[in-house]
Specification:
The protein has 510 residues and is of the alpha+beta class. Among the domains are: 173 residues, Rossmann fold; 182 residues. Helices cover 60% and strands 13% of the residues. It contains 13 helices and 13 strands. The strands form 3 sheets. A 6-stranded antiparallel beta sheet has the order 2-1-4-5-6-7. The chain has a 4-stranded parallel beta sheet with strand order 3-13-12-8, with helices on both faces. The longest helix is centred in the middle third of the chain and has 81 residues. The chain is rod-shaped, with a radius of gyration of 59 Å.
């Protein structure tokens, strides 16, 4: 990518400012507060946009910092650049209410979509944080950020897997982790559901076993009552009740007539003995005897009628008792059959519940989730191991490139750089490794510059312009010339912003 023209309509302290840039190395000199850092921020804002912060953060963000001093509603600019042999025009309006972005290919007039990622594609997928950690160095910001470390790890794994940097291994790891957590959540839900089913089955089985026992006791009781041949309140009680005396009118009349005969006979004898003569004594005896015999006959006749009626009544009572007992026995048999049928149904249900327990233990969905979880964990572990291994291989390439750049800048004073995890750096002076923290500020910034340029060479498919804002303030003359000489030899556009004349003079000599 080559930036060709810049038109700052209104941005910070700059307004209606036009600039033209060419390929290769170029230096812009200016005094303090002449707008160099504003130009640096403008180029970054044009390439990656600028969002306004929220709340208290809005008071210190770049949007507020570079809001135009005059006419803040007119907050916009244009940047023209060449990429892939074509010319493009990028227009941005940063204002709060009319914010918009326009990207046009000036060769054919086609309007591209920034929202759909067309600008990201032209930038080679470089993120703002990665841009700030490689080719863009602001004032007092030579040290690269942690974004560079993650990008190098991604690049290492992607290079092995696809031969390029198009994939995102960190993103893949995040995706695997998210899927693993989702699977773990589903598995926990499945286990909870299975435990709830198992609890319900155990509870229902307990109820069924209790009901089956109660039904068995009931059936045993029915069998006992059937074997005894009677039911509570059966014929025995009825027979006892039937043996009691009961009123019978014919027998009562006969008994009454017999009593009258006896009473009348004794009365007649008493009266006749007092009033009748001895000659009539035979008649008295005859009448008395006849009355006694009639009374006895009536008494026996009443007894016969009563006994006969009582026997008939007893037979009727026995038949009624048998019928009632038959009804009771049929009722007992019906209740027994009902209890047996209910017990059989519950036994079948109990067997089905016992058959369901192995099905719960062999839950296919749970087994599938467990297998998926094992696979995701394995994939995550293997991808981490691969990323770490390939990261070490990429670190060797980064060490080699950064060492070459650093050796050229220091004219061979240090022959090598060793970059560890999290971009920890040490230098080799030919006899020992020296931690970067023990070196001078100027040497330390030269180390960071070498690491940035080496990382940019590795990571960026489309070389972006190198924008340096007061980057060489701590360089001595000799190393500054070596650094500019190295930059001049690269096939990149380099824009240096400086308040001094050293960079300009060396650039002119080169």
């Amino acid at each position: 990518m080559i930036i060709t023209d810049i038109y700052i309509k209104n941005f910070g302290m700059l307004s209606e400012k036009r600039m033209h840039f060419s390929e290769g190395l170029q230096v812009l000199c200016g005094e303090n507060e002449s707008g160099k850092s504003t130009l640096y921020a403008f180029i970054r804002a044009m390439l990656f946009g600028m969002e306004r912060g929220r709340g208290k953060a809005a008071a210190k963000d770049d949007f507020t910092r570079y809001e135009p001093w005059e006419n803040p509603g007119y907050y916009a600019g244009v940047l023209r650049f060449c990429c892939g042999g074509k010319k493009f025009r990028l227009e941005r309006d940063f204002s709060r209410y009319t914010k918009r972005t326009l990207l046009v290919c000036e060769d054919d007039g086609e309007e591209l979509s920034v929202e759909d990622g067309d600008l990201d594609m032209l930038l080679g997928g470089v993120t703002p944080a990665l841009y700030d950690s490689t080719v863009s160095i602001g004032q007092l910001a030579a040290a690269p950020g942690q974004e560079l470390s993650a990008a190098l790890e991604n690049y290492a794994a992607n290079l092995c897997e696809s031969g390029g940097g198009d994939l995102d291994v960190n993103g893949a790891l995040k995706c695997l982790k998210d899927r693993r957590r989702e699977t773990e959540k589903k598995l926990r839900a499945e286990e909870d559901s299975e435990e709830e089913k198992h609890r319900r089955i155990l509870q229902e089985r307990t109820y069924l076993e209790r009901d089956i026992k109660n039904l068995a006791d009931e059936i045993e009781e029915k069998n006992r009552r059937l074997a005894a041949g009677q039911a509570p309140g059966g014929p025995d009680e009825k027979l006892e009740a039937g043996e009691a005396w009961h009123y019978n009118l014919p027998a009562a009349m006969l008994f009454a007539a017999a009593v009258l005969c006896f009473v009348f006979g004794f009365f007649f004898r008493t009266v006749a003995a007092n009033e009748w003569s001895s000659a009539e004594a035979g008649s008295v005896v005859f009448v008395f005897t006849a009355l006694m015999l009639a009374g006895a006959g009536l008494l026996f006749a009443g007894a016969y009628v009563y006994i006969k009626d009582r026997r008939r009544m007893r037979i009727r009572e026995l038949e009624a008792a048998r019928e009632e007992e038959d009804v009771r026995i049929r009722h007992i048999l019906w209740e027994k059959e009902r209890a047996q049928a209910e017990m059989k149904e519950k036994e079948i249900r109990l067997v089905n519940l016992e058959d369901q327990c192995p099905e719960i233990e062999e839950n296919r969905e749970k087994s599938r989730l467990e297998a998926r979880l094992r696979a995701l964990r394995t994939a995550e572990e293997q991808l981490k191991l691969a990323a770490e291994e390939l990261g070490r291989q990429t670190a060797e390439s980064l060490n080699e490139k950064a060492s070459d750049i650093f050796a050229q800048i220091t004219d061979g004073r240090y022959s090598g750089l060793k970059i560890g995890e999290k971009l920890q750096v040490s230098v080799w002076d030919g006899s020992r490794n020296i931690p970067a923290e023990r070196l001078s500020r100027g040497t330390l910034e030269q180390i960071y510059f070498s690491v940035r340029m080496a990382a940019a060479e590795i990571l960026q498919e489309e070389p972006l312009p190198v924008i340096l804002d007061e980057t060489f303030a701590f360089y001595d003359e000799k190393r500054l010339e070596s650094a500019l000489k190295w930059l001049r030899g690269q096939k990149k556009q380099v824009i240096i912003l400086s308040c001094g004349k050293r960079e300009e003079e060396i650039a002119r000599r080169l």
